[in-house]
Design brief:
By secondary structure, this protein is mostly helical. The protein contains 9 helices and 3 strands. The chain folds into 2 domains: about 60 residues, Arc Repressor Mutant, subunit A (Orthogonal Bundle); about 130 residues, GntR ligand-binding domain-like (Four Helix Bundle (Hemerythrin (Met), subunit A)). Strand 2 and strand 3 form a beta hairpin. The N terminus is likely disordered.
Length: about 210
């Protein structure tokens, strides 16, 4: 049996490095991606760089225009409203399905994650709160088990990272977010699918409001 591992293509590694630079805002929204200059900087030919940019364009992180090349996507208010509308529908559905199909072990795992969220909030540890918050949402999506839906959510969440503003740092938002997560969790633990969906959609609506 051949167990040799296959290395991933170079352009995927390049896409990952570019993605990290975009999320770190080393490549600012609106900045032009000079394909030749970036290829030289990475010590590669233009072909894998071109393919990497195509990957990021498919994720919405990069925008390409005919005869104008590619640039890091800029997210305006209208974009945010549209993204959160879609996230509200999809993540609401994920919460609903999780309430219906989660095993007891999965419910325990979700409950444990929420305890970590509570601790991060009590410690005023924004970085930890954000990290656990992401895991909480991802676990709900994993339990729902719809890979197509989860793929769309993941791509939309990547685009949201283009925003510099951290809404959790706004006065009162962290505590409100914690309460919203607590309510979502309780609905899921009670197997109340309708409430879980409604509360998740409300949570996303509040998240949009906090970006103003």
């Amino acid at each position: 049996m051949n167990t040799k591992l296959i290395n991933r293509p170079l352009y995927e590694d390049v896409a990952e490095r570019l993605r990290a630079q975009i999320f770190a805002h080393e490549l600012e929204p609106g900045s032009w991606l000079d394909e030749q200059s970036l290829a030289q900087q990475f010590g590669i030919s233009r072909t894998p760089m071109r393919e990497a940019i195509k990957v990021l364009a498919s994720e919405g992180l990069v925008t390409t225009k005919m005869n104008r090349g590619a640039y890091v996507t800029e997210v305006d208010r209208r974009d945010l409203e549209q993204i959160f509308t879609i996230l509200s529908l999809l993540e609401g559905q994920a919460a609903k399905e999780t309430a219906l199909k989660a095993t007891e072990d999965q419910l325990t795992e979700l409950d444990n994650l929420h305890h970590r969220l509570e601790k991060a909030a009590a410690d005023r540890d924004l970085e930890q709160f954000f990290e656990v918050n992401v895991k909480f949402h991802e676990l709900i999506q994993d339990i729902a088990g719809n890979k197509w839906m989860n793929g769309v959510i993941a791509d939309l969440r990547k685009v949201l990272k283009l925003q510099r503003r951290d809404s959790l740092s706004r006065t009162g938002r962290l505590q409100n977010s914690l309460i919203e997560h607590r309510e979502i969790l309780q609905a899921i633990l009670k197997r109340d699918a309708i409430s879980a969906e409604a509360l998740m959609r409300k949570h996303l609506a509040q998240g949009l409001e906090a970006t103003k």
